[in-house]
Design brief:
The protein is α/β, with parallel strands linked by helices and 364 residues long. 32% of the residues lie in helices and 18% in strands. It has two domains: 155 residues, NAD(P)-binding Rossmann-like Domain (Rossmann fold, 3-Layer(aba) Sandwich); 181 residues, NAD(P)-binding Rossmann-like Domain (Rossmann fold), CATH 3.40.50. Its EC number is 7.1.1.1. InterPro entries: Ala_DH/PNT_CS2, AlaDH/PNT_N, AlaDH/PNT_NAD(H)-bd, NAD(P)-bd_dom_sf.
Length: 364
């Protein structure tokens, strides 16, 4: 019997993305899977029910029907604990699940005998790159953050020479040179701004400069493991903040993207730094979802802090739902391909990606 894959509509507030597109649906059917999707699944991402049906999916009238008897469930964000409780014992689920962030969700996975594969737990290896939802979605978020900054800024980003005189380009500082930060650098440069990027990892200099940005060296290095930054010591943080605060006086727009996986976003911009910035400056804090890099950030709000606009947008990847969904769905398909063999669900615990992504964690 073919492996049964079910996909229900996303219910998290503001979520517009989908974990399966007609393209990846067709590929899963080719692997021997029987696909059931809830009607209206792709409405907010502009994927029609007819497109899913043409790709080989069966349309169900509600979430319970879409997931009934499913061997494998695909999602962007985890279904509610109540819906998880309806899944059959032994079913697998793939998505951005964050089980440890919600005790009720974690309990539903455990008591239901489910095998969860939170893709945010993927090992950081070359082979895993095609399944890396954090990187694919961060690219969209970094792009959108710069567009928001340009919209909020009371000035042009590019230099303009007009009959009324020359307009100097905006000075943009991107904080954090991960995927989101590098996309932000590239996007701000395309808009014509003068762009700098600060990261405590000096090895990011080459990537920043390759995109046309200037590496801002504040004399503090925090090289960590796996390509991520380590937490700074109190002394390092004090020195960093002193030098950064002085530099921010000449910056028009800041885009914050710094993050440490599994921990609250590091506080890099203090209220005092914001107070020293010129009126009309803009801060867009992409890290708002995990607390923000700016001390004044209010997640989901845009505020005026003494003439400086501080925005803490949420769900930025979801705001680019078409391309974000296409990338997310390909990530999910590539991981699901590890679990589907000859039309059946096969969990190969000798595969590092399968074993290390699984939750609850496998013993041994």
């Amino acid at each position: 019997m073919a492996v049964r894959i079910g996909i229900a509509r996303e219910t998290a507030p503001g979520e517009r993305r989908v974990a399966i597109t007609p393209e990846t649906c067709r590929k899963l059917v080719a692997l021997g899977a029987a696909i059931t999707v809830e009607r209206g699944l792709g409405r907010h991402a502009h994927f029609a029910d007819d497109a899913y049906a043409a790709a080989g999916a069966v349309l169900a009238d509600d979430a319970a029907a879409a997931l009934a008897g499913a061997d494998l469930v695909l999602c962007v964000q985890a279904p509610s604990p109540a819906l998880l409780a309806t899944l059959r014992e032994g079913a697998a689920i793939i998505g951005h699940l964050q089980p440890e962030a919600d005790p009720a969700r974690a309990e539903a996975i455990r008591t239901g005998g489910l095998v969860a594969f939170p893709l945010e737990r993927l090992p950081r290896t070359t082979r895993a790159q095609a399944m890396d939802i954090l990187s694919s979605q961060a690219g969209m978020a970094g792009y959108k953050a710069v567009l928001i900054a340009a919209q909020l800024a009371p000035r042009f980003f590019p230099m303009l020479t007009t009959a009324a005189g020359t307009i100097r380009p905006s000075k943009v500082l991107v904080i954090g040179a991960g995927v989101a930060g590098l996309q932000a650098v590239a996007t701000a440069r395309r808009l014509g701004a003068q762009v700098e990027c600060f990261d405590v990892r000096p090895e990011t200099r080459e990537q920043i400069e390759s995109l046309g940005g200037r590496f801002l060296d504040l004399g503090v290095s925090a090289v960590g493991e796996g390509g991520y930054a380590r937490a700074l010591t109190d002394e390092e943080r004090a020195e960093q903040q002193k030098r950064l605060g002085e530099h921010l006086r000449g910056i028009d727009t800041i885009v914050c993207t710094a993050a440490v996986p599994g921990r609250p976003a590091p506080k890099i911009i203090t209220a005092g730094m914001v107070g020293g910035m010129a009126a009309g400056s803009v801060i867009v804090d992409l890290a708002a979802e995990t607390g923000g890099n700016c001390e004044l950030t209010r997640p989901g709000e845009t505020i005026d802090a003494g003439g400086v606009t501080v925005a803490g947008p949420l769900d930025l990847a979801s705001s680019g739902a078409v391309h974000a969904s296409e990338m997310f769905a390909r990530n999910v398909f590539n991981f699901a391909s590890l679990l589907v063999s000859d039309g059946a669900l096969v969990l190969d615990w000798d595969d590092e990606l399968v074993a290390k992504t699984a939750w609850p964690p496998r013993e041994g």
